[in-house]
Amino acid sequence: MCWNFPTTLKHTFPSPWLELEKTLAVRDVALLSLKDIWQNTPPNWVGSDPCGKGWEGIGCTNSRVTSIMLSSVGLTGQLSGDLELLTELQTLDLSYNKGLTGPIPRSIGNMKKLLNLILVGCSFSGPIPDTIGSLPQLLYLSLNSNYFSGQIPPSIGNLTSLLWLDLTDNQLKGPIPISDGNTPGLDMLLNARHFHLGQNNLSGTIPPRLFSSEMLLIHVLLDGNQLNGSIPSTLGLVQALEVLRIDGNALSGPVPSNFNNLTNLNQMYLSNNKLTGPLPDLSGMNRLSYVDISNNTFDGSDAPPWFPTVQSLTTLKMENTQLQGQFPVALFSLPLLQTVVLKKNQLNGSLVINPTHSNQLKLIDLQFNSISGLEGKEAYNGTLKLEDNPICGLTGDLNNYCTVSFSSASYSTQNVDCDPVPCSSDQNSSPNCTCAYPYTGTLSFEAVSFSDLGNNTYYKILEYSLMQSFNYYQLPVDSVSLTLSNSTTTSSEYLEMKLKVFPLGQVSFNRTGISSIGFMLSNQTFKPPPPFGPYYFIGDQYEKYTESKKSSRSSIVIEVVVGGSILLLVILLAGVYVLYTKKRAERAIEHTSHFSQLDQSSRGGGVIKVKGVGWFSLKELEKYSNHFSVANEIGSGGYGKVYRGSLPTGELIAIKQAKKESKQGKLEFKTEIELLSRVHHKNLVSLLGFCFKKGEQILVYEYVLNGSLKDSLSGLHGSRILHDPSVD
Questions:
Q1: Among 136, 160, 290, 577, fewest CB within 10 Å belongs to which?
Q2: SS3 state of residue 631
Q3: Strands laid side by side in the 370-375 sheet
Q4: Which 3 state secondary structure label does DSSP give 624?
């Protein structure tokens, strides 16, 4: 927007005007710089006023840019050093744009108010700048699935507010940095809950000083690196730890004896290292569900006594761990057990499967042992693998157990009580049998706590959880679809599922919808059900956008920029206001009174005029609420009922319809609208419009319940209140 303030006013009040002009100029330079160097920016990035003109993906507060959220929009180019000019920026999320390349500029360190730096699944490269450690308020740092190289900057240790550190799946090398009195290190991140550093080329030891009893870590993921040396005993001091992955390294020596102090641990992956000494003692770790210590060179021993005591165990993998002696029959009695893999050991004698075995047991893999007998096979209908055991040389009906077989699991979301409909070649049919262009991507779960991948209940719970989150944050989502292909896990043993998210009430999403969904997944706002553990999402580029169309409802816009209390005082004193041209206003009013008036002459009494509040026809509201259907009802009270509705843009609204006995006179209704239009508070939803036709008195609010996605940008989650005390 252009600000042409009178020269006399500038001389009378020089400070505020100059400060405002400086603020707008700096903001515009930064955004215009991005617009110039990026390709495929949103079509409405026109003009020089990103806040006033509502550039898609740009969030503003008091004319200052506070968020840039552009997931999966197909951006190409590099990051501009001019980003540092956006001094009020709190969230930068450019995830899932494979065309974004090059380094992170060192000037990133000047964005002192940044809370979320999320660049997931792009093609950024080069070293992570050490200036990233100069962001004192940073909470989330997610740079996974790029091509970053060099070492982890020790300066990250200065980010004392950091909760989430994810550098997974890059090309980082060198040691894990710790402080030494002169330089910072990751050991200083006492508030962090997540260290996700897997699938890199990190080397050296895991420093003992990396961990302490003061740390609050719940996830430590160091899998798929080149770390060596011993596992530090200080790891046993991190009492909150729930998931540990240090598999796929070159770690040696014994497992620390204090490991069983980690009584909150759910998933433990120590496989594919060079660990020696006795088998780890896991007694007392009563929350353990998934244990994989395969392919290490532990001392030869019989089955440890803790085997039948870990009642929460679903999965035990101890391939090639020098187990010997009789198979521990008591293991099968664990109530939640799904998978036992003990192949390539020296187990001998008879395998006895008791009728009391876990009814969830689906796989027993004892290939390459010395099993000579089998009892109770009739009581077991899961998969049993005995290839290369002496028993396979005996006669009898053992072919099913002694022949190599490859099992795989698959899953695809089923339709919800409807018949599939034929769709055009580039559309998909949703679970609710509507044709649309879904947003797609891949969910990678890094440490699941189950191994029965053929149990569809897990995936149905995940679908339900996704929809609950989308609804909770009022995102325009109709349904989700999950697909598990025959290749169940990746080489890193991550469980991958294809996700499709279908739009609500339209055939495609707009850019705001895609960016909001992308942010919910990239910022880990979505919390999966506990069995799925930590995850990340890589979204595909979305191309079939619903473009925003200018309607009469949006043809009259009053743009007010408030730079602070001083500027507000100046505006009041000077009497400066900004309006669109009179001709444009009059032309718009001829077509609609959405933001100015409602003709009620047919009801015997003049005109309702409420500035800044939209007008809706009864026909529109019936359409948006599915004719005020019971399914859309979300509340009721002394005044009337509240229904959920959806605008053509996909925006959700709350429609409050008065009961017949609760209706007011026209003057009282007008007074209420005027009052509500002036109420603005962070914990009150905004009044969007009203309807006063055919005897109806209806108010239309923004739809917010128990917090909004916007709240999560600053880590806030709280209820926002519909300003109607009669509706509980």
A1: 577
A2: helix
A3: 324-326, 346-352, 370-375
A4: helix
pLDDT for 486 equals 58
Q: Is 521 helix (H, G, I), strand (E, B) or coil?
A: helix
The residue behind tokens 């796929």 is 248
- CB 489 within 8 Å of CB 723: no
Q: Give me 267's structure tokens.
A: 């998933």
- The mean pLDDT of 317-338, rounded to a whole number, is 93
User: How far is CA 83 from each of CA 20, 86, 89, 144, rounded to the nearest angstrom?
Assistant: 19, 6, 9, 21
pTM: 0.73
Classified as helix, coil or strand, 189 is coil
Cα 217 → chain centroid: 19
Given this model, what pLDDT does residue 28 score?
A: 55
Give the pLDDT confidence score for residue 597 in this predicted structure. 39
The b-or-e profile of 249-283 (16+ CB within 10 A means b, else e) is bebbebbbeebbbbebbbbbbbbbbebebebbebe
Which run of H or E residues covers position 666?
helix 666-677
Q: What is the DSSP letter of 345?
A: S
Closest C-alpha to 246, from 298, 286, 296, 212: 296
As given in the structure block, the two tokens for residue 354 are 């008791």
Predicted local confidence at residue 659, as pLDDT = 77
pLDDT tens per residue, range 68-87: 999 999 999 999 888 898 99
Alpha carbon dihedral 18, 23, 29, 35, in 10-degree steps, equals: -140
Cα–Cα distances in angstroms (integers) from residue 361 to residues 291, 456, 506, 531, 693, in the given order: 16, 15, 44, 17, 64
How open is the CA angle 428-432-436, to the nearest 5 degrees? 30
Paired tokens of 585: 């206003």
What is the dihedral sign for C-alpha 203, 204, 208, 209? negative
Using H for helix, E for strand and C for coil, what is the string for 450-475? Answer: CCCCCCHHHHHHHHHHHHHHHHHCCC
Residue with tokens 């779960």: 445
> Does 145 have pLDDT greater than 90?
yes
What is the four-CA torsion angle of 418, 419, 424, 425, rounded to 10 degrees?
Answer: 100
Confidence label for 677 from pLDDT (cuts 50, 70 and 90): low
State the DSSP string of 295-337: S--PPPBPPPTTGGG-TT--EEE-TTS-BEEE--GGGGG-TT-
**pLDDT-wise least confident of 169-183, 242-256, 344-358:** 344-358
Long-range contacts of 301-309 (CB under 8 A, 24+ apart): 302/326, 303/327, 303/328, 303/331, 304/279, 306/281, 306/282, 307/331, 308/333, 308/334, 309/283
- Residue 167 makes CB contacts below 8 A (sequence gap 6+) with 128, 143, 144, 148, 152, 196, 197, 200
Contact 240, 265 (CB under 8 A): no
DSSP string, 86-113: -TT--EEE-TT-TEEEEPPPGGGGG-TT
Is there a contact between 184 and 159 (Cβ–Cβ < 8 Å)?
A: no
Could you tell me which of 124, 179, 123, 180 has the C-alpha nearest to residue 156? 179
Name the strand (E) or helix (H) holding 653. Answer: strand 652-658
Half-sphere exposure of 444 (CA within 13 A, CB side): 18
Q: What Å distances lie between residue 197 and 167, 272, 576, CA to CA?
A: 5, 17, 54
Radius of gyration of the chain (CA): 31
Write out the H or E segment, with its range, that includes residue 17. helix 14-37
* Residue 250 near residue 227, CB atoms below 8 Å: yes
Of the given ranges (70-79, 334-343, 426-435, 579-588), which has the lowest mean pLDDT? Answer: 579-588
Strand positions, DSSP E, 392-545: 411-412, 428-429, 435-436, 439-445, 477-484, 495-503, 535-539
pLDDT tens, residue by residue, 465-495: 999 999 999 999 999 999 997 555 556 789 9
Tokens of residue 506, six digits: 């339209």
